[in-house]
Amino acid sequence: MVALIVADSSVFIYGKVLEGEVVTVPGVEAELKDIRSRMRLQISGARIEAPSKDSLERARATARETGDFAVLSEVDLELLAKALELSAELATDDYALQNAALHLGIKVEPVAQPRIRKIVKRTQRCIGCGRPFEGEECPVCGTPAKRRKGVHK
């Protein structure tokens, strides 16, 4: 059985050869600015497919739960959703994307950087009143957000 791999733009930028059937999302093609990266995408024979709305919503929900939503781009969320939809491996160097993928049980293939060491769940806490919240400032006292990392168990 041939492995399915959803590829981030770093795969084509660095020219990593992946063993298996490669799939990516339309946003990755748009991210590739130089001719070499675009040629690597074409030569790879990668299928370019958008994720379903259901898998995209699940990816967004997971990114919110892990605290990675604020740092993941729409393309990152689409990659996560496509890997989820296809039950595929995800090839990326983006640590926040790796973290969200591992929370979903998606196998991660690093491209040029080492894989993340710990799966974390990021939270925002008010440095004024200590309450957890989402957004840029505390809805209770108006203090700006402070990010904290906690190891996921």
Automatic annotation (TrEMBL):
SUPFAM superfamilies: PIN domain-like (SSF88723)
Signal peptide: none
Gene3D superfamilies: 5'-nuclease
Transmembrane segments: none
InterPro entries: NOB1, PIN-like_dom_sf, Ribonuclease_PIN
GO cellular component: preribosome, small subunit precursor
Domain Ribonuclease PIN: 5-86
Record's keyword terms, sorted: Hydrolase, Metal-binding, Nuclease
A GO term for molecular function: RNA endonuclease activity
Matching Pfam families: PIN_6
Domain of life where this protein originates: Archaea
Protein name per UniProt: Ribonuclease PIN domain-containing protein
Entry's Gene Ontology BP terms: maturation of SSU-rRNA
